[in-house]
Amino acid sequence: MSNHLSHYDGADPAHAEGNAAPETPESWAGLPREEFAFPGPLRDRLVAAILEGRKTSGTALLTEYLSAGETLPRAGDRSVLVDSGNRPVAVLERTAVRIARLADVDEAHVHAEGEGYEDVAAWRAAHEEFWDSPAYIEVLSDPTFRVDDDTLVVLDQFRVCERRPDTGA
């Protein structure tokens, strides 16, 4: 699912209530936030997959960056991964970034996303469902937007380079 959404600041109160934020390492100050999907169960699963090392790549729509006026990520960029309660849990470092047509996303990228899709078709169906959702269309501020084979996507690879001590090994 989309791992951009850095301009989305909302939190799901059901996931944030009563969760005091532990101390954030000073070295993380000033790094941009990295949010996967919207707060809730999907983000929780994606963050867990990243922390477990199963998820090492992500996909975002190029139009999301363009509509937000944000710079595209580059290899070497670092960001702070946040969970559904908007708590920082790890620092990610981009190791590779490329732009491709949606129709050209390959099995290697799908496998590195670590979400258990059987093939590219299953991966694409799940991603299209997310990108066509009313909540995502609202983020884009373009009610006419639709995904097709020629939709440009930002494919990135990353690694966890630091984790909060309280998130496990």
TrEMBL record:
Pfam families, per database record: ASCH (PF04266)
Q: Which segments carry the region annotation Disordered?
A: 1-30
InterPro entries assigned to the protein according to its UniProt record, in alphabetical order:
ASCH_domain, DUF984, PUA-like_sf
> Where is the ASCH domain positioned along the sequence?
36-144
List where Basic and acidic residues composition bias occurs. Answer: 1-15
Protein name according to UniProt: ASCH domain protein
